[in-house]
Design a protein that fits this description.
This protein has about 425 residues and is mainly β. It has 1 helix and 30 strands.
Length: about 425
């Protein structure tokens, strides 16, 4: 894919939809694949040249603290023109926050890179895993420890490794520590099968992953990753292709996609949920938009007393929906799933809405922030974010950013000055 940018949203409670404005003017790029940091403070997204040619950059964007977004831009990394876009997967980005410092892991060419965003928004970049001929991707950083799980083609068809991070990787030289031999290959790897898409459980002790060891894609769970008696448990067993497993914030459920028909890319899939031990598989919705890199999006940190059930948020036919999981399907009882559409999202009215990510519930914002990519009237993909009221899952206020294309509006003139 293309470039990535980081954005810090306003600190006041959000009362309107916020458009993340482009770092450059013109129609030569799309902004896609938003990814919130684990605390919902920073936002990353990709910048993809519309023609597929040109320099692909990662930008760091620091915004102002009101609802009118500024663009203080600092370059973070650059991929020269001529490299294959698929070797620059910023959308596989995984966040971690340590003592107010923001870390991100992402794929660049065949290697895994680490970016560190300091408190003053300065940035350092280093190589975490370096191999010559094989790809390293799908990094997953646990909130509970400093280990990153990832997929590497250095051995077999593709195996899952875990590796501890330290700031030594941000220093030049020291390449021996970046070799794949300094990572630990998880048990039960099959050299003839592709294992991929690892995701840590919320307690940081288990992994859920996708494997093709029985022919088609199935979902597995590796219990006790750091113990001597780690156990691999098969969670799905069907002729269909299951993919992109994602833990619920409480660790009790796993959401995943079943690929519809022949679609193996980022198109539509069926959204399912099961318990964390693979029981009570329940269809949530058919033909939803697949978050190919990150998997289904759960809403984290909702106040337990008011919202005791887990919530999923997803896109179907360019509209956004929230699903409350009251009970999964059992032999004795039917599933109880409450689905609520979210109205008044700007952007999709012009063309269509695709990528979406959800930040944890934020007490300061008094709501849940979502970011999404939507095509405007000119056919350009741009990033928006809004704050939702979890009482009724409505946007707190209709988007007030029509001024962006109105040269007579004072906000437009103020934005030009901030540039």
């Amino acid at each position: 894919m293309g470039g990535m940018a980081l954005l810090s949203p306003c600190t006041a409670p959000c009362q309107e939809a916020i458009k993340i404005y482009p770092a450059t003017r013109g129609r030569e790029f799309h902004d896609i694949n938003p990814v919130w940091s684990t605390d919902g403070y920073l936002l990353a997204f990709e910048r993809v040249p519309q023609t597929g040619e040109g320099i692909h950059q990662i930008f760091f964007i620091q915004t102002f603290t009101d609802s009118i977004q500024g663009t203080l831009i600092r370059p973070l990394a650059t991929q020269p023109s001529g490299w294959t876009l698929e070797l620059f997967f910023a959308s596989y980005l995984s966040w971690a926050v340590r003592n107010g410092i923001y870390y991100c892991a992402y794929m660049n060419q065949t290697n895994l890179h680490i970016g560190r965003v300091e408190k003053d928004f300065s940035v350092k970049i280093g190589i975490f895993v370096k191999t010559e001929m094989s790809q390293n991707k799908y990094p997953a950083w646990s909130d509970k420890h400093n280990y990153i799980a990832f997929t590497s083609g250095a051995t077999g068809a593709g195996d899952i490794y875990i590796k501890s991070y330290s700031d030594d990787y941000l220093r030049t030289g020291n390449d021996v520590h970046r070799d794949i031999s300094n990572a630990r290959r998880i048990p039960y790897n099959d050299d003839n099968a592709l294992d991929s898409m690892p995701q840590w459980s919320p307690d940081g002790q288990n992994l859920v992953l996708v494997s093709k060891r029985y022919g088609n894609q199935d979902i597995f769970r590796l219990n006790g990753v750091f113990t001597s008696d780690a156990l691999l448990q098969r969670l799905t067993d069907s002729p269909e292709e299951e993919t992109n497993p994602s833990w619920s914030p409480d660790g009790n459920y796993i959401a995943f996609y079943i690929i519809s028909g022949q679609d193996s890319g980022g198109g539509t899939c069926d959204l399912w949920v099961m318990t964390a031990n693979g029981e009570h598989k329940t269809l949530i919705e058919n033909n939803v938009y697949r978050r190919e890199q990150k998997g289904p999006a759960w809403i984290a940190n909702l106040p337990q007393r008011r919202y005791p059930h887990p919530y999923l948020i997803y896109v179907k036919e360019h509209h956004v929906y929230v699903a409350r999981i009251v009970q999964l399907q059992t032999e004795a009882q039917k599933a109880q799933i409450n689905i609520t559409p979210i109205r008044n999202l700007r952007g999709y009215k012009y063309e269509y809405l695709t990528d979406l990510d959800c930040a944890p519930y934020d007490e300061d914002f008094r709501g849940v922030k979502i970011a999404y990519s939507a095509y405007n009237r000119l056919g350009d993909a741009r990033i928006y974010w809004v704050c939702l009221n979890p009482n009724n899952w409505t946007v707190q206020q209709e988007d007030a950013n029509a001024w962006f294309n109105d040269t007579n509006h004072p906000y437009y003139q103020e934005y030009q000055l901030k540039k």
